[in-house]
Amino acid sequence: MIDPIGIWLWLSIAIVTVLLAQFLANLLVLRGLARIAPPGNGPLVSVLVPARNEAARIRPCLEALQLQDYPNLEVLVLDDNSTDNTADIVGSTGFTVARESRYRLVRGSVLPEGWVGKSWACQQLADASAGEYLMFVDADTVHSAGTVSSAINAAKRYRADLLTVLPYQTTKTFGEKLVIPLLFVVGGSYLPHWLVVLAQQAPWLARFLGPDFLAGCGTAIGQFLLFKRDSYYQLGGHASVATHLVEDVTLGRRVAKRIPEGWRLITCDGTGLVQCRMYSSLGDIWEGFTKNLWPVFDGDRVRFWFAVVWQAAVLVLPFALVPFLHRPELYVLVLLILVLRAMAACRFRTSWISVLCHPLGYGLALFIAVNSLRRSKGKGVKWKERVYRDRCRQSRPAEAEEVGKT
């Protein structure tokens, strides 16, 4: 007699085992962003900070960037038509609008039709900069004094066209501790970063896998993106992802797609040098991930629902059945999931609350994903006082509307 519960349990065990193996493989190839002594000289680096309504969080970021030990850098902050006093805070830390200033405040232009706000801000920053390297960092990041030196050293050492860095994620509230650590679990076990590394070391493998497959393996973290200037503009800059709400992931995919041409996408562990507090409450988490989760799938509803269903069935449902279904396979499955969560918590120093409350946090994340699809296809997702509506099949929210003006 067919045992459907047994089939589900053993299939789930196989899936989690693969995720666990891939997480370990990815850790083996994850390069650390090593602390180094500052160089005596080096190429000009433009550190670029897009800022819209960041008055409450931007000061520590700018003060840390002013303490960098790298000898040749400029820092540009773009005030993206903020409705708070972001520009005043930036000015109070020593930034001026003078073009010759090492620490410069750039006034953002009005958001054009067909652009997402952050991409437009980043493109303006790149066009206003002069550096051989372009380092995009979010306004909620804080950097140790050696961050720029270490990042440039890694970019040159690994010949990176794009180097993206994993910051340490600061979490303070229960909601943050519950959900934010999932970024390391999902990012570390779902994508074969190890295969991207191998493809960059073996051109024959890159040609065999092909650009489309490699694009699907690529990603990047918008909190810290370091481009060669020439590579950035060859890629089309942020103009090439003007309509994407997850511009960082899309840029990573575009670089990965060009690995067969010799391009290099490098991911480094920067948790010892960079920290970031993405959101400060459960409400912020809800809005932030509602903005991001559906666009990650590029409009593919089948892939979206497949991902939601299998993750619910494999990673959440088993915990709900533990009190009612007494089978050894179920206990093995739950143990494997907790081992994966515990490994991520230890490696990236995330909160153990997320491990202990795994089904609650993961279930909430899946619920936010469904809300992301619902909102994108309906009244739109709100972010930084702008509303983005999904106007076409490929999840490219080409229309942004200022809140209160529609």
Second CATH tier, the architecture of the largest domain? Alpha-Beta Complex
Instruction: Kindly report the spatial arrangement of strands forming the biggest sheet.
Output: 1-10-7-9-5-2-3-4
Stretches with pLDDT under 50, minimum 5 residues: 392-400, 402-406
Q: How many beta strands in the DSSP annotation?
A: 14
By CATH, the topology of the largest domain is Spore Coat Polysaccharide Biosynthesis Protein SpsA, Chain A
Strand content: 5-15%
CATH hierarchy, class of the largest domain? Alpha Beta
Relevant CATH superfamily of the largest domain:
Spore Coat Polysaccharide Biosynthesis Protein SpsA, Chain A
Q: Averaged pLDDT, please?
A: 93
Report on this model:
There is one protein chain. This protein has 406 residues and is of the alpha/beta class. The chain has 2 domains: 31-276, Spore Coat Polysaccharide Biosynthesis Protein SpsA, Chain A, CATH 3.90.550; 282-390, no CATH class. It contains 17 helices and 14 strands. The chain has helices at residues 4-29, 58-66, 86-92, 117-128, 147-157, 174-179, 182-189, 193-201, 203-209, 211-217, 229-235, 247-257, 282-292, 301-321, 328-348, 352-356, 358-377; strands at 31-32, 45-51, 73-79, 103-107, 133-137, 141-143, 162-166, 168-169, 224-228, 265-269, 274-276, 381-383, 386-389, 399-402. Strands 1-10-7-9-5-2-3-4 form an 8-stranded mixed sheet, sandwiched between helices. A 3-stranded mixed sheet has the order 6-11-8. Strand 3, helix 3 and strand 4 (103-107) form a beta-alpha-beta unit. The protein is globular, with a radius of gyration of 21 Å. The termini are far apart. Residues 392-400 and 402-406 have low confidence and may be disordered.
